[in-house]
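User: My instructor asked us to take a sequence, write out its structure as tokens, and then describe one feature of it. I'm not sure where to start. Here is the sequence I was given:
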Amino acid sequence: MTIFPLPAFDDNYIWIIQDKDSSSIWAVDPGMANVVLDYCHKHEKKLVGILITHHHKDHTGGVAELKQHTNCHVYGPKHLTELVTHSVEDKDLVKVFSRNFNVLATPGHTLDHLCYFSEQDEPILFSGDTLFKGGCGRIMEGTPEQMLEAMQKISDLPDHTLIYGTHEYTLANYRFALSLEPDNLSLVNSNLECQELRSKNLPTLPTKLNLEKKTNPFLRSHIEPLKIQAAQQLNEKPAKNPIDSFSQVRRAKDSFS
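Assistant: Let's start with the prediction itself. The structure tokens for your sequence are:
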């Protein structure tokens, strides 16, 4: 099985899952139909399945047209009744070719957000807008408590899990992360590597969970110097409990320029 991105909009990635020696593919969060259809036409592939992480249009905008053209299966949040053919929720299983994916409910960015995790062979996670390289999604519908729980759920996965987020936000995320931890050598080095990749118009994704634990402020909101710096950026006193500390880091990012 191979996984690769099709760029869409300004900074989205539609992840394509392709099995060895197969003419079939799956797509994750296809916000644009023509990007997937053009790929299928050019490479003589057939779309047989779609995974949806949440309802935002840049993740679902192409689903209806793709269903119409391909009659593919669509897995996603149960309230998307006009789009999904198979509604899924936390702890459900989805089979993509020979791999089983566990559905993880990760509300926070949206209330319906799902991630898809497979531990077969090399563990992989399609994280949608829950976790990015160096960042996490804005809290648009959920609460800081829910988002922190989502971070903890992802943190509990194997350290070598490959994480496929849906946006190329890495350099912007790293600018904020470096404002909190300018002496974090893992962060400094990863930032340089990603600058080089982007200079060649190459994706910075996927990332690995063990790198995120060393560099991502939203998996590190328990680190005392980081907490203090985030509070200072907000002109607040450092929070005294984990949820409020996470909230301060998230709000500091929201106001960061």
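For the description part of your assignment, you could build on this observation: The two ends are 39 Å apart (CA to CA). Try explaining in your own words what that tells you about the chain.
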